Amino acid sequence: MKRNRLLNNMIFASLFIAIAFVLPFLTGQIPEIGSMLCPMHVPILICGFICGWKWGLLVGLVSPLLRSLILGMPTLFPTAICMAIELGVYGLLTGIFYNILPKKKIWIYLSLIISMIIGRIVWGFVMLVVMNITGDVFTFNMFIASTIINSLPGIILQIILVPILVMLLEKVEIVKKKFN
């Protein structure tokens, strides 16, 4: 049983990496639209819910780096590196919260929103550190613009789409309501 779970998680994690790799093509490789819709975030968030925190963390860390190394988008430094940490936190936290909180719709939404907030804060901190190392400036206004204002369409999309997909996957029993 445990071996089947490992294989299933490995298959789903691979699928989510592939989706995170391909989904940004929907934005037409226009960075402004991509940063507004945050297409790589959706599969990582769902991965945490479906596969658990370990796989969510791994898929979140790997996806932007892999895409950057193969396609050059997002740029490796600083964007893909900071995104990798942010998305890793998303996958980690959605997996942890989904595992420990009650299995009701409201908790799926709260798990998602709390994970998104913490992930964005972590991204801002990492970006601040990276910018200070390179001698560039990263202000609080830049943080607010990047994490909230510019990506508001993506935030709304994630809050609508991710819980619906998780609940749908629960219904078809792809997601087990309690991790072992």
Descriptive terms for the model:
mainly alpha; Arp2/3 complex 21 kDa subunit ARPC3; globular; 180 residues
Question: Can you describe this structure?
Answer:
The protein is mostly helical. The chain is 79% helix and 0% strand. It has 8 helices and no strands. Helix 3 runs antiparallel to helix 4, helix 3 packs parallel to helix 8 and helix 6 (105-134) crosses helix 8. The radius of gyration is 16 Å and the shape is globular. The model has no long low-confidence stretch (mean pLDDT 92).
Low-confidence stretches: none
Largest pleated sheet: none
Q: What Rg is obtained from the alpha carbons, in whole angstroms?
A: 16 Å
Instruction: Count all strands and give the number.
Output: 0
| Beta-strand proportion | under 5%
Question: Distance between the terminal alpha carbons, to the nearest Å?
Answer: 11 Å
Helix coverage percent: over 70%
Number of helices: 8
CATH fold-level label: Arp2/3 complex 21 kDa subunit ARPC3
Report a brief summary of the structure.
With 180 residues, the protein is an all-alpha fold. The protein has helices spanning 2-22, 31-37, 41-51, 53-71, 76-100, 105-134, 140-149, 152-171.
